[in-house]
Amino acid sequence: MKRFASFLATAAALIAAPLAAQPIAITGGKVVIGDGSAPIEGGTVVINNGRVVAAGTNVPIPFDAQRIDATGKWVTPGIFAGFSRIGLVEVGAVAQTNDMNASGSPFSAALDVQYAINPFASPVAVNRAAGITRAVVSPSTSGSIFGGYGAVIDLGQDENPISKARAFQFVELGETGHSRAGGSRGASHIHFRALLNEARTYARNPAAFDSDLLKASDAKALLPVINGSTKLLVHVEGANDILKVLDLRKDFPALKLVLVGANEGWRVADHIAAAKVPVLASALSDLPYGFEDLSATQSNIGRMKDAGVKVAIGMINDNDAHQLRYSVQYAGNLVALNKVPRATGLTWDEAFAAISSVPADIMDMGGQLGSLKAGRQADVVIWTGDPLELSTQVEKVIIDGVDQSLSNRQMRLRDRYRNPTPGALPKAYDR
Amino acid sequence: MKFRALLALLAGGSLMAGCAATAADTKSASAAAPAKTSKSSRTAFPSTYKAYPSVPTAVTGVTIFDGEGGRIDNGTIFMTNGKITAIGGADTAIPGDATIVNGSGKYVTPGIIDVHSHLGDYPTPSVSAHSDGNEATSPVTAEVWAEHSVWPQDPGFSRAMANGGITALQILPGSANLFGGRSVTLKNVPARTVQAMKFPGAPYGLKMACGENPKRVYGGRNRIPSTRMGSLAVNRQTWIDAQDYRSKMNAAKPPKRDLGKETLAGVLDGEILVHNHCYRADELNQIIDMSKEFGYKVTAFHHAVEAYKIADILAEEGICSAVWADWWGFKMEAYDAIPENAALLQKAGACVIIHSDDENQIQRLNQEAAKALADGRAMGIEISDAQAIRWITLNPAKAMGIDAMTGSLKPGKMADLVLWNGNPLSVYSRPEKVWIDGALLFDSGDPSRRPVSDFELGQPGEGDVK
Question: Between vectors from CA B162 to CA B157 and to CA B165, what angle results, nearest 5°?
């Protein structure tokens, strides 16, 4: 994240003072590291130069640190949304503001969300104020099983949101893949294999590449998928579809697969665990939306976790562009399952990790993001209480060590209409 | 989930619904005599619902939110013959033969009520063969009845009960049309037929819609309405025709029955409650003026994401706002939604309902109310926990015209209630038991007390906790 002086000058009112120059010590709070360990009462978090220096008890506080008293509060890493479309949409049904997919484009795998993600979109500000600091941003699909490159972003108020461009390629291989490929799973799988083989042909002699199936740009985009240097996020829900995706590695052994959705993952959890394929899953999907979701249950994540699957919470086709703030509520609901007979939930510590360190780990960014371990980029949120509880509010959001504005147009509207009756002048003058 | 509904909407097919419920006073402003033919439809497709067997049961030592804004700590509630018999403190008398449920550390609320659902008419699996919520072939289809689309085997009903404590709900037509058709109010009791779910004695509702959906659907076909002004023109002409029909039906030689106009006459007679999907503040106000022009009352505006901008007007008019806690941004008319909408309405003294319009969120209306409550408190609006429970119990019951029978825990009312395993305003709480008319229809500790629809029988995951 970088801040530009010109932006500061023009938008000074929106932006809190940078904290970068001085170390910050947040003291007295209940500190959650985010790695699945238990919260630490009366902990201290020290950050400097945009990084976490230390977090826990007996943490030395630099003499020149700015101190923030968090007594009675909770201090956690920022929430890492495991799967989303934040920044790609301002208003869902206004096509010009919706960059999730490109039904009129001749391209597929080469499409790249990094050029579309708008850090100034109001959903970014709204979700930042709710403690969401990082997100996996995926394209969706339209004319092909491949959606294109996704990214990992921060939700900071500066103009550079990209934490990792081209972090993964996105593909549909369930019911959606069936229709994208022309009407059968046989087609989607043969399509997948044929496109990857065409890409190999491209790699052997790019200059001579001439394919009826694949444009050169798309072929180029698939090469890092084949050799495993770019992850492949596969949206798939049904148990049988999951098994068929795991089988893809027989033909393409280097694929670095991540399952997205996996509503029926619990039924084949041993296979997923044995394949060491991580999952970005829906937390509360529990209805047979399609026949691929027949056995969907809120216990899916807990059961997969118990089987040894690395699993994080994502917003898969579920309020994915506007409501990443549901992440904490969803995690809390998985904790609630522990009190429901026969259900399988997550412990509180596991549930918080599923929206912080685990998605970061799944994106191979756990060394930089997703927790308050020393050396991590300093995304820190201070909450009035238990971050998973519905009554809790966000008090402070720090991204890369920079204190963030929590203002957004929802708050401005709220304040304008605190009293709905116009005063001496119309509401339009009330700012 | 919303995303799927929105996709369908963009395709111009099935539309996300959204409408309005009714206020407590549903008397028509018109002085004319009721149309004789309304009675014909009153007796058609009658409810065959019968309460299931119950045993006298008392929940003791429990925290009670009574649905009317009251709270009793260490309370007792006793039900017998399907009715609430007694409610009070620890000294409440219980007959010796009653089944006692120890509610220590737990909470009781009235059964949760959703004023806005499409369970059954947009059931899961969400395949096109099941898309029965919008008769999107004409902007005025007052003649259709949602109950004729409801598939009782929708697995969503069971989820709403087991995870959400839903005991009654209104199924509405969608919002493709200006006049979507009649709603139906159901007891959330599994049944072979929709008649066996129909809430006995519940009035009908009329679903109306304003704003983007009708003009997109019909404008896209180069038909009126393609604009908001077109919508109001069609609306007003339709009411003029309904008034004409109504007066002719009261004449010596009434004309042939007209199903659509029969429903509209029922609204003018004050027998059918208007539930109006509408988002923007300026449009809510247009609808209010139209209702005054034709002498009917809007019971509730549904979705009403900008209701907070005219909370004073809505309070004065006595119209409920059925809202989400925090949905926003999925279309232009939802752009100015704010999470404090419900709390600002409450502060202004207006009627607030939290609704779902969603087969997933209907499973946690308690949590949605809790979020709306928290956002109100964060801006300094004082609202009690018990009041927030009223948003999902008595207030929707009033808007559905069933508040004399259910919606709060008063002696003589139906024993529709939920025992929660913790505070229902906490994310960590779930229904433990659900009684409908005193019959124990869900028990989280007893797999045999969990409904499994025909669709799920013999399928993977049958009878799972979901």
Answer: 90
Residue A220's CB: how many other CB atoms inside 10 A? 17
Q: Which residue of A has its CA nearest to B466?
A: A297
Separation between Cα atoms, residue B366 and residue B65, nearest integer Å:
12
* 3 state DSSP class of A429: helix
Question: Which residues of chain B does A388 touch, with a Cβ-Cβ cutoff of 8 Å?
Answer: 427
Instruction: Find the helix packing angle between A185-204 and A216-226, rounded to 10°.
Output: 100
Judge contact between A92 and A117, C-beta under 8 A.
Answer: no
Are A297 and B371 an interchain contact pair (Cβ–Cβ within 8 Å)? no
Tokens standing for residue B51: 């309460």
Q: How far apart are CA B109 and CA B106, in angstroms?
A: 10
Which residue from A12, A4, A14 is spatially nearest to A408, judged by alpha carbons?
A14
ipTM: 0.95
All structural domains of chain A: 5-76+389-408 (2.30.40.10), 79-365 (3.20.20.140)
A25, A46 Cβ separation under 8 angstroms: yes
Minimal C-alpha gap between B5 and chain A (Å) = 11
Spans of all domains in chain B? 2-50+112-404
Instruction: Say whether residue A229 is in contact with chain B using an 8 A CB cutoff.
Output: no
> Contact A90/B329, CB-based, under 8 Å?
yes
**CB-based contact (8 Å) between A243 and chain B?**
no
Encoded tokens for A327: 């992440």
Closest CA to A31 of A372, A331, A325: A372
Termini Cα distance of chain A? 30
Q: Which residues contact B204 (CB under 8 A, 6 or more apart)?
A: B182, B183, B184, B263, B266, B271, B272, B273
Q: How many CB atoms lie within 10 A of CB A104?
A: 7
Residue whose tokens read 């500061």: A8
The yes or no reply on domain B2-50+112-404 and CATH 3.30.420.40 is: no
Which candidate, B359, B317, B327, places its Cα nearest to that of B130?
B359
Distance CA B291, CA B317 (A): 11
pLDDT in tens, chain A (431 residues): 444 444 444 444 444 444 457 999 999 999 999 999 999 999 999 999 999 999 999 999 999 999 999 999 999 999 999 999 999 999 999 999 999 999 999 999 999 999 999 999 999 999 999 999 999 999 999 999 999 999 999 999 999 999 999 999 999 999 999 999 999 999 999 999 999 999 999 999 999 999 999 999 999 999 999 999 999 999 999 999 999 999 999 999 999 999 999 999 999 999 999 999 999 999 999 999 999 999 999 999 999 999 999 999 999 999 999 999 999 999 999 999 999 999 999 999 999 999 999 999 999 999 999 999 999 999 999 999 999 999 999 999 999 999 999 999 999 999 999 999 999 999 999 99
Tell me the C-alpha distance between B359 and B85, whole Å.
33
**φ, ψ for residue A235, nearest 5 deg:** -85, 120
